[in-house]
Amino acid sequence: SRSRMVEKPSRRHAMWGSSVPVSIHCDSQAAIRIAKNYAYNGKRRHIRIRHGAVKELLKNGIISLEYVRSERNLADPLTKGLTRRIILETSRAMGLNPQD
After folding, report:
1. Residues 70, 31 contacting (CB under 8 angstroms)
2. Which bin fits 17, alpha (ψ -120 to 50), beta or left (φ > 0)?
3. Which residue of 45, 75, 95, 96 is surrounded by the most CB atoms within 10 Å?
4. What are the helix and strand counts (H, E) for the chain?
5. Domain of life of the organism in this record (predicted)?
6. Over the stretch 51-77, which tens digit does the pLDDT of each residue have?
7. What is the pTM (predicted TM-score) of this model?
């Protein structure tokens, strides 16, 4: 259930004695501001539900949102059409060994 997803895990569930927030990198400063804005009220139901879940995860320290410039975002090759050079660079940065 949604409420179970946003609960902070107890210490007995943490592998190393303390939990570390999952860092989510985002290349949209506007999206980060919206996620951190507790007064935001999305007009669409699915957006309100997701925003509420993200707010709870942030509040409970389960996730953290970090801004990363688009050219440094390693997930871009998975979501956008990019040049071969950029795909090769980001693939190497991810630890992959692309065939040239």
Report:
1. no
2. left
3. 75
4. 5, 2
5. Eukaryota
6. 888 889 999 999 999 998 877 777 777
7. 0.56
Residue 12 one-letter amino acid: R
Helix (H, G, I), strand (E, B) or coil at 61: coil
CA-CA distance, 88 to 100, in Å (whole number)?
Answer: 8
Cα(41)–Cα(12) distance, rounded to whole angstroms?
36
Residue pointed to by tokens 């919206």: 34
Q: Exposed/middle/buried for 73, CB within 10 Å: 0-12, 13-18, 19+?
A: middle
Q: Which sequence spans correspond to the domains of the chain?
A: 1-7+21-68, 71-100
The residue type found at 3 is: S
Joined tokens for residue 79: 């979501």
Residue in the block written with tokens 């980060």: 32
